[in-house]
Amino acid sequence: MRRGEIWTIQPLNHPKPRPALIVSVDPWNSSAPDVVLVPLTTRPGPSRPPVQHPQLKRASYAKCGAISAIPKEHLKQRLGILSDQAMSQVIVELRRVLGI
User: Fold this and answer.
1) What CATH number does the domain containing 33 carry?
2) Considering its fold, how many domains does the chain have in total?
């Protein structure tokens, strides 16, 4: 599990698997029991930069206002990795949302 990877996850409070983007740093990902992620949505909106990948069936957006941590066992299938440019846009929006 690496920063920038897109995974299908089983959310803690949702019965249906969803795509999400890992945003936690790799040292954390390799040692912690959980990962920090941003869910992906098909609805555009504020602080939702576009996320494109061939494995995503529809136009998707990183929901930067919905950051969460989940146990690694809730990661179900790796779909791929986001481009550096797209990841940079996500980081900009995360900083905006968090005020850092």
Assistant:
1) 2.30.30.110
2) 1
Which segments of 13-59 are extended strands (E)?
A: 18-22, 34-41, 50-51
- Own/partner contacts of 80-84, CB < 8 Å, gap of 24 or more, are 80/5, 80/6, 80/53, 80/54, 80/55, 81/2, 81/4, 81/5, 81/6, 82/4, 82/5, 82/6, 82/21, 82/51, 82/53, 83/52, 84/4
Range of the domain at 46: 5-98
Predicted model pTM: 0.92
CB contact set of 38 (below 8 Å; sequence gap of 6+): 20, 21, 23, 62, 63, 64, 66, 67, 90, 94
pLDDT digits (tens, 9 = 90+) for 30-51: 999 999 999 999 999 999 999 9
- According to DSSP, residue 52 is labeled -
